[in-house]
Design brief:
single chain, mainly alpha, about 0% strand, globular
Length: about 150
């Protein structure tokens, strides 16, 4: 199976998953379903856009095997980091754990500009903080390390 068909299958899976989760989230209470439904609609739209882009716009030439292997290795590291994200949050708290996760996952996916990684990690974490604390009025985990330092 070539790279283009793998990407299209992935996009179809993401689209179907987002529609499925959108239906499930419709049973949430009114205030709790707004943000998840917004994100799921965006994911569905972006997956359709990606399918269109890959089907009609992208030149159908194959990526070199070396570049493909590097990309797959970066995705593998990102999956490992996703499993490490929970311990990051438990030990360091949401803010530091998320900064670490975003920095390391961006680096492992091949983006090597440190300044850009730092700016995007801080701005993404700040946006999540605003959404969770100020808009949704929820609490974020502080982490074991922060709790030990407060004593």
């Amino acid at each position: 199976m070539n790279r283009l068909s793998k990407d299209l299958l992935t996009d179809i899976f993401i689209f179907i998953s987002s529609i499925f989760l959108l239906v499930i989230s419709s049973y949430y209470p009114a205030m709790a379903r707004t943000f998840p439904q917004f994100v799921l609609i965006l994911v569905a739209i972006l997956s359709i856009g990606d399918m269109i882009y890959k089907s009609f716009i992208v030149n159908k030439t194959e990526v070199s095997q070396k570049k493909e292997d590097e990309g797959e290795k970066g995705v593998f590291y990102t999956v490992i980091l996703m499993f490490a994200y929970l311990p990051f949050i438990l030990v360091f708290g949401f803010i530091i754990g998320t900064l670490l996760f975003l920095f390391l996952s961006t680096w492992s996916l091949g983006y090597k500009r440190i300044k850009g990684i730092i700016i995007s990690s801080i701005s993404s974490t700040g946006l999540m903080y605003i959404i969770f604390i100020l808009i949704m009025k929820s609490f974020l985990p502080e982490g074991l390390l922060i709790n030990l330092l407060r004593r």
